[in-house]
Design goal:
Rossmann fold, Hydrolase_4, signal, AB_hydrolase_fold, Serine aminopeptidase S33 domain-containing protein, two-stranded antiparallel ribbon, 12 helices
Length: 377
């Protein structure tokens, strides 16, 4: 069901009304799909380096126990043919899309409240973190340097989980850049680990990769407005803790959905070193439908912001992109102020998610980024 068909339009409209005309609630339901479970975790440690137990939500544990007990009782009636569905089960199966989206939003708010309280207490107690990747990932060897797992406070009251890749001291200089990487919508910083390690190793730059509110180990809700406070908090922390107070060393890198917060900050902030937009879109709703019937629900209006960019901009887009057609990237490139335009890379044989796949293409990708970084000095 596409979002421009009558049923989808009706569901979105109902959700909009039920949420108190909250554009953010509707946009969050359409835009953000955090991996569940995440492809990493942060092992909590005290000041002496001792591992701390993972947080366990007692309420959720009780619910799991109830569900398990209920399931055992349900199974008891199957063998003798007396099983009957519980009252309300059929109704649940027939829930409207708007109702499902509303219930999901309530669950996320509940999770956010608990996460924020947990992270605040950890910060007060001086808890540190160690990155633990999902066993299915096979990251490349990280050469020298240092990898840190941190949680960064934001103005929204939540904490963003971030991984900091510091290049080896022997290759650092006054020209060393730091990429602040805003990833796509259906991934997290665990899944992005291999690429971030390669970027750090190959470009001799630092990388700060963070999860949006509601993703992975981050607190908060996955909402458009929260991505803006997320990236602002992460960049502020990066300037202070990684770039020695020099904002010109920060390069914003926004991939797909990540182009939204990157464009927003790139429009508002003076003095940043540059910005890379990888498979970006003109705006969120323009990806879903060319119709402007739902224009009031549009988010991440990159096409309106890129013309106000305050740093050099490079566009990367696959010509075979079926999710976000290359016309989006071309329109954004054309809208960049002429003195800030850098050579774009229109990739002839790649789509939305495979631009860096394959040894030859990865090498070309790194070469293009290196060329861009060299234009900034």
């Amino acid at each position: 069901m596409c979002c421009c068909c009558p049923a989808a339009v009706n569901a979105l409209f109902c959700l909009w009304v039920q949420s108190g005309f909250s554009k953010g609630t509707v946009a969050g339901a359409l835009t953000f799909f955090p991996p569940d479970p995440p492809l990493y975790k942060f092992q909590r440690r005290d000041k002496e380096g001792n591992n701390l137990p993972d947080f366990v939500d007692d309420e959720d544990e009780e619910e799991d126990k109830k569900d398990k007990k209920s399931g055992e009782n349900d199974d008891a009636g199957v063998e003798d043919g007396t099983f009957k569905p519980k009252e309300g089960e059929a109704k649940e199966e027939m829930q409207s899309p708007a109702k499902q989206l509303t219930e999901k939003s309530k669950e996320l708010r509940k999770r956010a409240k608990k996460r924020n309280a947990r992270d605040k207490k950890d910060a007060e107690d001086g808890v540190e973190y160690k990155l633990v990747l999902d066993s299915r990932l096979q990251p490349p060897k990280f050469k020298g340097g240092k990898i840190e797992a941190v949680k960064i406070p934001t103005k929204s009251g939540s904490y963003c989980a971030a991984i900091v890749y510091r290049c080896p001291k022997k290759v650092r200089s006054d020209r060393t850049k730091t990429l602040v990487f805003s990833h796509g919508n259906a991934t997290d910083i665990g899944a992005m680990f291999p690429l971030q390690a390669i970027l750090c190793n190959s470009l001799n730059c630092n990388v700060v990769s963070y999860d949006y509110s509601g993703y992975g180990e981050s607190g908060g809700m996955p909402l458009e407005k929260n991505t803006y406070t997320d990236i602002a908090g992460v960049v502020k922390w990066t300037i202070e803790e990684v770039c020695d107070g020099d904002e010109s060393k920060v390069i914003l890198y926004g991939q797909s959905v990540g182009s939204g917060p990157s464009c927003h900050l790139g429009m508002k902030t003076e003095g940043l070193g540059g910005m890379v937009l990888h498979s970006p879109f003109m705006s969120g709703m323009r990806v879903l439908t060319p119709s402007r019937i739902l224009g009031c629900l549009d988010i991440f209006p990159n096409i309106d912001r890129i013309s106000k960019a305050k740093c050099p901009v490079m566009l990367i887009h696959g010509k075979l992109d079926q999710e976000v057609p290359i016309a989006h990237g071309e329109a954004l490139h054309n809208a960049v102020p002429d003195h800030l335009k850098r050579t774009p890379w229109w990739v002839p044989d790649r789509g939305h998610n495979d631009i860096t796949e394959g040894r030859g293409k990865l090498a070309e990708y790194l070469a293009k980024l290196r060329e861009f970084l060299e234009t900034l000095d």
